[in-house]
Amino acid sequence: MNGMTGYSYKENYYDEQYLTTEIKTVNHRFLDVFVHLPSFLSPLEMSIKELISSSFTRGKIEVSVYLRLKDTSSTVTPNLELARQYCDSLKKIIETCGLNDSVQLSHLIKYQDILVSDSKRDYESYWKWIKESIEGNIQEVNSMRSKEGDSTKVNVLFLLKEIEEALETVFLHVPEMEKLIFNCFNTKMTELVGEVIDADRVLNEVGVLVSKSCVNEEIERFKHHIKHFYKIIESNTDVGKKLDFVCQEMHREANTLGSKAVLPSITEFIIIIKNNIEKIREQIRNIE
């Protein structure tokens, strides 16, 4: 069980080439990968995304790569014909607009296509270095996410234990709830028709009311959801999404219990259950 918050930064030198890689991860419903690269490394973007996708299943993940090359094999050639065309065009603009200015070299070098760099790119080596560095980032990030997951797991299990105890208290009050329903109905009937009451009729009516107010089914379903929760939290696949779904089901049962509760003494336990479910849902939003 892993969290979704992590960070790692690495600096490396490979054949006197300076490389930095950085990974930031935060919680997100799905896997969303952003890669920031120098333009000359753009051909490696998909490979980096595939590497990240094979290591994480959820979270917003930002990967930044910087590579400073010590490249002495490059040659720079000016495109003189293109430079002349730019120069002529700029002169026409100056003349047409009546500007008191002249074309300078600083104007021309802003156009990157005037200077053509014949750089030899060794993408195989670049990818080897970047992959090695990012794999180190991934190990560090996973270590942080694992620690966060362990801490969250402890908190969640504590809250779940409180839910179990509150649910058991509600279950122990079921006979008292049924007795209260009987007494209330019997009192009401006596007020309406007097002391002469058909006992069998009362029992039948009370039986109907008790069946409508019975919470045994909800409690049994709730216990089943708790068992399922324990099973999922020990697994390693889509834990966060599955636990969130189970919490939705537990919350539904808690609402039904609350609507059927006729004893003021158990209302506080229903509130504890609902409150803890919300706390659990808040924490598992950051679980992968």
Share of helical residues: 55-70%
Low-confidence stretches: none
What structural class do helix, strand and pairing data support?
alpha+beta
Number of strands: 6
Strand content: 5-15%
Q: Given the structure, what is the number of helices? A: 9
Rg from alpha-carbon coordinates: 35 Å
Distance, first to last CA: 7 Å
Quick structural overview:
This protein has 288 residues and is an alpha+beta fold. The chain has 9 helices and 6 strands, in the order E-E-E-H-E-E-H-H-E-H-H-H-H-H-H. Strand 3 (31-36), helix 1 (45-53) and strand 4 form a beta-alpha-beta unit.
SSE map:
Blueprint: E1 6-14, E2 17-26, E3 31-36, H1 45-53, E4 59-68, E5 75-78, H2 80-97, H3 105-108, E6 115-118, H4 123-172, H5 174-193, H6 199-213, H7 216-233, H8 239-260, H9 264-284
Parallel strand pairs: 3-4
Antiparallel strand pairs: 1-2, 2-4, 5-6
Helix pairs in contact: 1-4, 4-7, 4-9, 5-6, 7-8, 8-9
What does this structure look like?
The structure is a single chain. The chain is α+β, with helices and mostly antiparallel strands and 288 residues long. It folds into three domains: 6-71 and 121-144; 75-118, no CATH class; 146-284, Butyryl-CoA Dehydrogenase, subunit A, domain 3. It is built from nine helices and six strands; from the N terminus they run βββαββααβαααααα. The protein has helices spanning 45-53, 80-97, 105-108, 123-172, 174-193, 199-213, 216-233, 239-260, 264-284, and strands at 6-14, 17-26, 31-36, 59-68, 75-78, 115-118. The protein has a four-stranded mixed beta sheet with strand order 1-2-4-3, with helices on one face. Helix 4 runs antiparallel to helix 7 (216-233), helix 4 (123-172) runs antiparallel to helix 9 and helix 5 crosses helix 6. The longest helix is centred in the middle third of the chain and has 50 residues, at 123-172. The model has no long low-confidence stretch (mean pLDDT 84).
